[in-house]
Design brief:
Mean pLDDT: 96
Structural class: mainly beta
Distance between the termini: 40 Å
Low-confidence stretches: none
Strand content: over 45%
Number of helices: 1
Number of strands: 11
Radius of gyration: 14 Å
Oligomer: single chain
Amino acid sequence: QVELVESGGGLVQVGDSLKLSCAAFGRAASNYNMGWFRQAPGKEREFVAAINWLGGIKYLADSEKGRVTISRDTAKNTVYLQMNSLKPEDTAVYCCAAVYKTTGWGFIHHYSETYDYWGQGTQVTVSS
C-alpha cells in the first residue's frame, strides 16, 4: 500500500509555470508506476502524464506535449509535473495516482481505472 501527497498547486497567471510534486510513502513506494490526472469543474477526469517506476518511460497527453514534462526522483520517491505556459483551461484539481509495477502498464497508463492509489489532489487555478 502507498500513500500519495501532492503539493505545489496555487493561483497563477496566464503564461506562468508551475511545478507540482507527488510524494509517495509506504513500503516499496519506489516500485510504483505513477500518473497525473486532472479534473476541472463539471468535466471528467483526464490523463495528463505518466512515468514508470524507474523513471525511464514517460507518457504525455497529446494536448500537453511541449508544455508539460514529468520526472521522478527515485531516491525521494517523488514525481514531478512541470507545467509551462499555463492557460485558463488548465484550471483543475490535479491528482497523482499509483499502481504497482506490472507488465502491460504502458498500454493502459492513461486510464484512471488502472491506478489503485490516489492522492487528495492539489488545486491549480490559472487566472486571465
